[in-house]
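Continued from yesterday's entry.
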Amino acid sequence: MMRFLLALALTSVATTAQRPAGDAALARGDTSAAITAYERATDDAQAQTLAGRLLLTRHIAGMVRSDALSRSRAAFERATELAPDSAAGWLGLAETHRAAGDILSRIQVGRLLDRAWEVAQSNPGTVGADVAYQAARYRWERYEGRANRYLFNLDARTLSPEVLLGDWREVQDFFARQVRRDPGNPGSEDLDAAEDRLRSALRLNPVHLPTAGLLTVLLGERGRWEEALELTQQLVRQAPDSGGAWALRGLALSRTSRTGAAQQALDRALSLLPPDDAATLRSLQPVLRPRDEARWGSLTPAARTELERLYWAAAQPLYLDSINHIRVEHLARAVYVDHRWRDPLRNMSGRDTERGRVYMRYGPPDTWASFEGGRLSELDPDAADPVLDAAAMLETQRTPVVWLYERSELRFLFSLNAQFARDNFGSNFREVYRRSQDIFPARYDNLSLVADMDTVLVQLAQFRGARPGTSDLGVFAFMPLGRMARGAEAGPLPLRTGAILKDAQFNDVHRSVDTSSVLPNNPQQVEMRTWRFNLPAGQYFMRVEATLGGVDRHARSSSLLAMRSYPFDSLRMSDVLVADAAAPRDSSYLSWRDFFIQPSAGRFAPGDPVALLWETYGLQPDSTGAVRYTIELTFTVREVERRGFAARILGGIGDAVGLSARGDEQVALQYERSAQHAERQVDWLSVGLDDATEGLYTIAVTVTDRVSGRTTTQLRSVRVTRGELVR
């Protein structure tokens, strides 16, 4: 008996001595030696907990048989035997069950987390907060599988992926006729429990970021973003130097339409986060086309930063506004998905989940529908196999989740594992997503500024500048004031208009902004604005914008612009300026600036005259000092089939010598001109397209120098329509 007691005592001393050895090994970075030492301390609960925690980090998610996971579970089981009042031991044991690949292990997670929470009640601080957070996350994941539940009507039994892959009208019909929203609000009890645990966690640790993040998302899910805003305000007060806290603040501000403040908060977050975390948050990779993702990975950090700057400069909805609403939305989505769908156990961010990827690109869906597990045909072909045992049957009862986007007609199908909100694309929707990335790399339709943005019709025309090496740019813009002012009360409204030119690096070259007061009086009212710029040859980005105060409506036009040079030793033409009317101010006109021009947006009603004006440079004089050249105008129908239309010259020239039809869809006019030699030759005329049907027409103006034999051509498109001429 004495020998047995002595041996037992010696064993206890030996195992207890292993923890300091494990601590020393861990301090020098030798985790293998630390695990071995901790596992040998079989009578030390703390050592067993440390062993379980280290082993759990070595588990590879998705492995069916994992030695690391088995040993981790054994260590945590021993820790709970030795110290049943240890919350850390029970929490670790719950995590090993959650990581398991079988449903029977995972359905025990709730019970183990409840036990961990019971013993953590008297243990304030980080451990108690971690336990409460994990318990809340478990409840949240249960809710994820039951949120937005739809019920099948009596005559419908399954949701076929073929329905979702069909015509958009079939998808709409399915949701209108075959299913209905569950009025019982399933999952609300899990949501209540999750909120209760999260608030308990914050009482234990007010700056526990995972808890604050999930609670922010949860409050948003319940339409309580103002409460979330108050929560994040308290968070940044208590942790003013936390980038994660400011990121959550930015999310809540953006979702309560405080976009300017959200931009400031998110920029503050990026300045405070560790460099790697900041780079991940602002990364463009989640919104790139697949072919561009590899190139992104090969860029240096400096090159990525510059590309991000250029990307967001191009994406900014309005240059008249200092707030980049799309960039704010991108960052807010990144914060949202990371807290909603993150998987701490698998060390997976929310952006790496299937739903997270879709959300990053396309934002919140217009329809979010989940269906009862096992009701999705062709996703679970073995679900009805009678030889499957109960656990395997449960494993196949995945939850189908459908997301629909109205404006883009995108649709996605996900499949969620039972008792565990790990999602995958259902059926062949991974391929659907891949194709969608090429068509729509990213969309921001959830922003009213983007979704309701109207169009400014703009005509740009280039002419040779007065200074060598420069060109004049005429900008003729048509603001759809009537549409922008729809629903506005009577009275003057403030209108801001602007033409902004940027260089290839998106730095301002010219910015011309005008503020006025307008009185809308009909739905088709148009405000015209004209700008003229003198620019050297090069690549530019042109934006014309209009914002109407009082109703918060906006319109814009964006153009990539290649300013040409006009050498003096060759035959060249300016752009062809299309107008409703054009006439010289007097008989001594020398350039396009000497004309009265009533510009057009390129839209004409059937039978309306089309005025054309252009300049020709480099005509060669003959021995008498005169220039002689031929002008040919060709009108071609591009979008409709038109049989036998005719054109006639209304004014501007008196020496037309030819008119010919070329097939059923083209008509040509030809005439000759002669004049005294000048640096530039201005030509103008008005043409009526008799009986022209509605459609898109291309006008080709060709000038042939009869002295040198050289030829030059410019094209312009016009649309003939009976609809609103501003559209």
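--- second protein ---
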Amino acid sequence: MTRRTVVLAGPAAWGRGRAAAGLPAGAAVRWVSRAAPAGAEACPPERFHRILGTTCDAVVFDAHDGLDPDALAAAAGSIRGGGLLVLLTPALADWPGAPDAALDRLIPAGQGRGEAGGRFVERLIGCLRSASGVERYGPDDPPPSLVPGPPAAAGAEHGYGCRSADQRNAVEAVVGVVTGHRRRPAVLSADRGRGKSAALGIAAGELLRRGRVRRVSVTAPSLTAAEPVLEHAAAYAAGAFADRRTVRVGPGELAFREPEAVLERAGADDLVLVDEAAGLPVARLTALLRGAPRIAFATTVHGYEGTGRGFDLRFRAVLNTETPQWRAVRLEAPIRWAPGDPLEAWLARALLLDTDPGEPDPPVSGDALRVEALDRDALAADEPRLRQLFGLLVSAHYRTRPLDLRQLLDAPGVHLFGAVCGGECLGVALAAEEGGLDAETAHQVWAGRRRPQGHLLPQMLATHAGLEAAPRQRGLRILRIAVHPRVRRRGIGRRLVAAVEAQARSGGCQLLGTSFGATAELIAFWRACGLHTVAVGARRDPASGEHSALMACGLDGAGQRLVAEAGERLCAALPAQLGEPLAGLDPAVARAAARAARAAAAPVPSGWQRRELEGFADHQRHYAAALPALQGLAAAALFRAGAGTAAEEARWAALVGKALQHRGWAETAERLGVAGRRAALAALRETVAGLLVE
């Protein structure tokens, strides 16, 4: 059955009272609100992750608390077929200017609500007015019926108790991961409501019931996300819950474990299942893929946690390299609700959940392409251009969420640039104004007492580089940059960066910068655009799974001095930081970051260090005795120009990893392409000898 949307537009107290009175007492109703009635199942909007994987009869979504589009998408996805979304809003004419806590999170410190836009809500109102199946009521209208319809009938059985042929194919693919050859993972992808989590659970239950496996781990961004897998396995195989995390089927078990715990088990599982994979960083997924010879992934293609489109584009390359015989399974037919569901349709349009960059014809020459500033009012009114632009962001970034659409349209101080050819948008860049804080706030940021919202570039320069003056400087930070896959590596990205730099200069900014999950390739791109490394984050970013790199360039004398000083401090601190807070940073990335610092200069070993290194390289001086000198040489290798062969680069990175990061001999040997400690030590001696000659 299809699902209904009822909009109660009017004063908050009226809408909340009408919803509470109209919903039947026996229905499973969830309130996404901070003002839910006493005794109701309630979830505040900022905790919407709890909704993932759950099912209910109706959701009351209280937009008087603010409209978080991620929370709205998650809440709607939890409503069963025949169910009901009750959307509480201010009067539609007043809504764009009403208080909005979700919009407040997008406003940088020092700016006010009056500087933010109302384009996102205005566009949403247009979608609600034009969508079929949306009922709108005000205080003067008769009370609407808020009784959810009956659940959808079970429908035809397709084997394994599946509700569609797609779901059966998915189950068979996961079963085949165990019954077939090793290292042939299955990847299930679907929009919400297609039964992919159920397919994982049914497959696990089938394998446990037949005794083909004894130990199965399921992992996901949270236990709540994995609970449907556990529940479907238990129901299918008549299993019993030993606790909330574990289902026992005969002598076997299916247990939820955090990704780190699965990795620590080092192949102890007969099968690993990864649900909501788009919610995990690619680096974590790659580690799971390498550590589990039999593994299956499931991901939502379009969802609140970040679109699976980015997962598909980025992780597909890893799968092709690591496990070229992997199998892709796409689930199209909805199970939780009827095909053509009106709630799914209007929400997909409003939040651009179904967008992609299209397949434009690439330009014949660079002369046909122009980079131009985009007006956000015009963009909000141009649906095809908006869909194409947001589709570019979805295709290029691992985690692009509905909230990003609201930031793009409404956040103050945001500048948009498009690379346009023949009416098609082939690239896009978003940049945000930051900095310009007063002296006292700058001091509080440097001292670690304040973290003003929306000022990442100056804040990181103050906290990581120790530059108290940085928050007082004005800068433009590039938030996102995306180029259509068909025209990448043609200089379009650099032209977009140049356009942002021109805007920053004309606006009187002192700095241009960006922050991203550090990889050697990305550092090289930004270095080619004229930016220098000024800081490396001590913790891994939860979205990318990588340490964040901050790169910047100065646009006037003051900005250039800041960037130079930050580079000098980074170069001085990096060798020591690699021993502890950055011990997990890829040594090759550490080298790329160091070489991209403006003040990068290779230190020279002292006389006694050189003598010790010669003893290690040419004789049999022990590694432990030579370690202090090796650390000095490794620090020099950090800044060595990257013109060596791939083998030389690997050896220099191995030296950095061993001497500065204290990596184990097994990992060092693997990086050097040899087997065992003895061979690794010999290769390390050769590396040191080569560095001493040059």
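The chain is about 40% helix and 20% strand. Confidence is low (pLDDT under 50) at residues 304-308. Will compare against the first tomorrow.
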